[in-house]
């Protein structure tokens, strides 16, 4: 495969991932599941999707755009290892993001209870 064809294939794969798959996955699974696991009502989950989707997509693009540029050009035998390495970094980021959000909610609830 020549360089131009490889570039086009990588660009297409990255575009589909960022603009088709990621918004669907975050809006229908990741954000609502996080809300459900934290005991929120469905209406609160919908509000979470509205408020967290864009920041999550931006963070995803910051991590996965360069990651996918590397992953899609790694030899096939090493591709799964490369993807898993970046996925580990992404999972750590998401867990920190969710923990910070939960701590902020708990602090505001505690402040309201004290008042």
TrEMBL record:
Top-level taxon: Eukaryota
Membrane topology: Multi-pass membrane protein
GO cellular component: cytoplasm; membrane
Protein name per its UniProtKB record: Uncharacterized protein
Family: Belongs to the peroxisomal membrane protein PXMP2/4 family.
Main location: membrane
Cited InterPro entries: Mpv17_PMP22
């Amino acid at each position: 495969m020549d360089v131009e064809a490889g570039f086009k294939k990588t660009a297409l794969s990255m575009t589909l991932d960022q603009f088709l798959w990621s918004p669907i996955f975050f809006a229908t699974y990741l954000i609502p599941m996080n809300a459900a696991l934290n005991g929120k009502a469905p209406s609160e989950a919908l509000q979470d999707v509205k408020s967290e989707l864009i920041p999550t997509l931006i963070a995803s693009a910051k991590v996965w755009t360069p990651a996918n540029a590397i992953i899609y050009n790694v030899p096939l035998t090493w591709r799964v290892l490369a993807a898993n390495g970046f996925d580990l970094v992404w999972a750590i980021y998401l867990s920190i993001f969710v923990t910070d959000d939960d701590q902020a909610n708990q602090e505001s609830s505690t402040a309201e209870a004290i008042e």
